[in-house]
């Protein structure tokens, strides 16, 4: 009984930390075990500055996934906006690899190149051009008309919020939990 009591206490603690229900935590745990090959951690394959974890345990995994929690229908407008900002802050930090509060052209290029590296039809130079064009667009959205000698230092979080304004991030950036009947249809 002690182990079962401890496990249910741990689940309640995770519910409080992440906002997931016990059923959702159970589904995510099954997925974590699939991804980890039944190991206690998943190897973090992202190369970057020394602040990144080499391995991600289940609690870390749940914390990361909580940013992608579906919007609760009982949330008021203020809570929905807070959830939106949390998702965007998480996304911003994915790009801001040196954590200086600004996404530079080089950081943005690295992310775009990494995202497109699996596509054999897009060369590194094309990915770089895509990143450069997107950064120019960001500069025009955030700074307006720039003077020829003016340099855009990069995207701040406030700029990032402006860029994503009007885009329905709440429904595009969330985990979908399939019930067992739906999953049976997929196989």
From TrEMBL:
Composition skew (Basic and acidic residues), residue ranges: 7-16
Predominant subcellular localization, coarse grouping: other
One Pfam family matching this protein: EF-hand_6
Residue span(s) of domain EF-hand: 83-118
Subcellular location: Cell projection, Lamellipodium; Cell projection, Ruffle membrane; Cytoplasm; Membrane
GO molecular function list: calcium ion binding; protein kinase inhibitor activity
Topology class, membrane: Lipid-anchor
Coiled coil residues, start to end: none
CC annotations in GO: cytoplasm; lamellipodium; nucleus; ruffle membrane
UniProt cross-references to InterPro entries, sorted A to Z: CHP3 (IPR052490), EF-hand-dom_pair (IPR011992), EF_Hand_1_Ca_BS (IPR018247), EF_hand_dom (IPR002048)
Entry keyword set: Calcium, Cell membrane, Cell projection, Cytoplasm, Differentiation, Lipoprotein, Membrane, Metal-binding, Myristate, Nucleus, Protein kinase inhibitor
One BP annotation, GO: cell differentiation
Disordered: annotated segments: 1-20
KW Calcium (keyword) present: yes
PANTHER family per UniProt: CALCINEURIN B HOMOLOGOUS PROTEIN 3
Protein family according to the UniProt entry: Belongs to the calcineurin regulatory subunit family. CHP subfamily.
Record's protein name: Calcineurin B homologous protein 3
Annotated source species: Rhinopithecus bieti
Name of the gene this protein is made from: TESC
